[in-house]
Amino acid sequence: MILGIGVDVVDIARFEAALERTPAMRDRLFTDGEKTLPTHSLAARFAAKEAVAKALGAPKGLSHLEAEVRCDETGKPEVRVTGQAADVAYGLGVKRWHISLSHDAGVAVAYVIAEG
C-alpha cells in the first residue's frame, strides 16, 4: 500500500550557484557518501531529500542528512532514512522506498514513494 508520495524539481544552475555562494551548504545537505558527486547528481539528491520529506507528510524538524540516496551495484538509486525521518517513517508503517531520479535540460527531478 502506498503511504506517501513526494516529488521535487531543482534548477541545476541555480543549485550550483547556491553551493558556490555558500560552500558550507554542502555539509548541511549531504552525507559524506554524497557530497563528492557532480553537481547534477547533488541536485537530484537534494530533490530526493525534499521528496522524501513530502512523502512523510513534511514533518517539521527533519534534517536533509536524515535521507541519503545511494546506488546499488547496478546503479539503481535507493533511499536510506535515519534519525527523525526514520522515526516518522516507522510510525507511518513505511516498509519500503521507491525512488526515481533524473536530470536533463538543466533540471533535476526526484520522485519518491513510501510503501507500507
Overall geometry comes to: globular
Strand content: 25-35%
CATH level 4 superfamily: 4'-phosphopantetheinyl transferase domain
Largest sheet: 3 strands, antiparallel
Total separate domains: 1
Contiguous helical run count: 4
Helix content: 25-40%
Question: What's the CATH C level?
Answer: Alpha Beta
Describe the protein's architecture and organization.
- It comes from Nonomuraea pusilla.
- Strands 1-5-4 form a three-stranded antiparallel sheet.
- Helices cover 36% and strands 33% of the residues.
- The chain has 116 residues and is an alpha+beta fold.
- The protein has a single domain, classed as Ribosomal Protein L22, Chain A.
Helix-strand blueprint:
Elements (H helix, E strand, L loop, with lengths): L1 E10 H10 L3 H5 L9 H17 L11 E5 L5 E5 L1 H10 L3 E9 L2 E9 L1
Antiparallel strand pairs: 1-5, 2-3, 4-5
Summarize the structure.
This protein is α+β, with helices and mostly antiparallel strands and 116 residues long. Helices cover 36% and strands 33% of the residues. The chain starts with a strand and ends with a strand.
Which descriptors apply to this entry?
single chain, 116 residues, alpha+beta, Ribosomal Protein L22, Chain A, 3-stranded antiparallel β-sheet, two-stranded antiparallel sheet, 4 helices, 36% helix, transferase
